[in-house]
Design a protein that fits this description.
4-stranded antiparallel beta sheet, SH3 type barrels, Arc Repressor Mutant, subunit A, alpha+beta, 12 strands
Length: about 300
């Protein structure tokens, strides 16, 4: 398991452990029981201070007293007791776990099934039933499942929307993730020499290779988080161009004179200028000024060429 997964499991067990010792416990003894350092234990305890019940006021949060080298729970916010779920809560968790179990390449499937059994027990022995359909509608998911299970490399032809380019890459598939209605192949890209997310509906061709590879740990970032390193531009979008906001990850900034004001992260300004021009005046640039100037110059060049052809 990854370090973050280890810590999450430890936090789930730490509060019941402390609550079972109402007189408190020495930090060194607790750290030894969990196989961690005292410094890591202190960090975990500080994180527990942020956990609690809805409302999240001081009276709703976990309260742990740490004096000298000893810790004692003063208020556990009910988190040290088994949860009794309502039928609606059990259904929501069950549906989420069933969706997770249906995701191709998911790890720890046995843990997912175990969690479903525990939810059924917490709901009074009744397991809610739901018709789960895979959110990913892309075809050929079995191919990705097989590549992940066999740890086989593959050659893909991939369209990158942010660059408006199609490239051929050799990848090492690690997992398939679902995000905002799309399925992504998480794979080590040998060209980029790093983990990447490839949207399945943008993989134009896939050829499994005979070679296998050593497993690599899948990144914990969500698909699209790499966009944080891209330049952000602000655009005003007319109603006739709302597909832009639907097709690209963007941040809503409000409205200006009836037009949607959005922030979009782009790979480079040349691609952004082509994108804006493609909407024929229904999209305008707010900032940066350099992009506005580039769009103007591209439009002027297009008009000049158009005039030359007419002449």
């Amino acid at each position: 398991m990854s370090t973050s997964t280890d810590r999450l499991a430890r936090l789930f067990n730490l509060l019941p452990y402390l609550s079972a010792r109402p007189d408190g416990v020495e930090l060194e003894a607790a750290a030894a029981d969990f196989g961690i350092t005292v410094e890591q234990l202190r960090s975990d305890l500080m994180l527990l201070f942020l956990c609690g019940l809805p409302g999240y006021s001081p009276g709703d949060l976990v309260d742990i007293s740490i004096e000298a080298d000893r810790a004692q729970v003063r208020f556990d916010a009910g988190l040290s007791r088994p949860v009794r779920l309502s039928m609606r809560e059990a259904l929501a968790l069950s549906v989420a776990l069933q969706a997770l179990a249906s995701t191709p390449g998911v790890e720890h499937a046995e843990a997912v099934r175990s969690a479903l059994d525990k939810i059924a027990a917490a709901a009074g022995g009744v397991r809610p039933k739901a018709d789960i359909r895979e959110a990913a509608v892309e075809s050929g998911l079995d191919v990705y499942r097989d590549l992940i299970a066999q740890r086989r490399a593959a050659r893909i032809v991939y369209y990158t929307a942010t660059r408006d380019t199609t490239t051929e890459r050799i990848v090492e598939p690690t997992a398939v993730q679902l995000s905002e209605g799309h399925a992504y192949l998480v794979a080590w890209c040998r060209s980029a020499e790093g983990m990447r997310h490839f949207r399945l509906d943008r993989i134009d061709a896939l050829t499994p290779l005979e070679e296998t590879f050593a497993p690599r740990e899948a990144p914990e970032t969500a698909p699209g988080e790499f966009l944080e390193n891209f330049e952000e531009v602000e655009l005003l979008v007319d109603e006739d161009a709302l597909s832009l906001a639907e097709n690209y990850p963007c941040r809503e900034l409000g409205t200006v004179e009836g037009r949607r004001h959005i922030a979009l992260r782009v790979y480079d300004q040349a691609w952004a200028a082509r994108l804006v021009a493609g909407y024929g005046g229904h999209v305008s640039v707010v900032r940066p000024e350099s992009l506005r100037n580039l769009v103007r110059s591209r439009a002027a060049e297009a008009l000049e060429r158009y005039g030359q052809r007419l002449g």
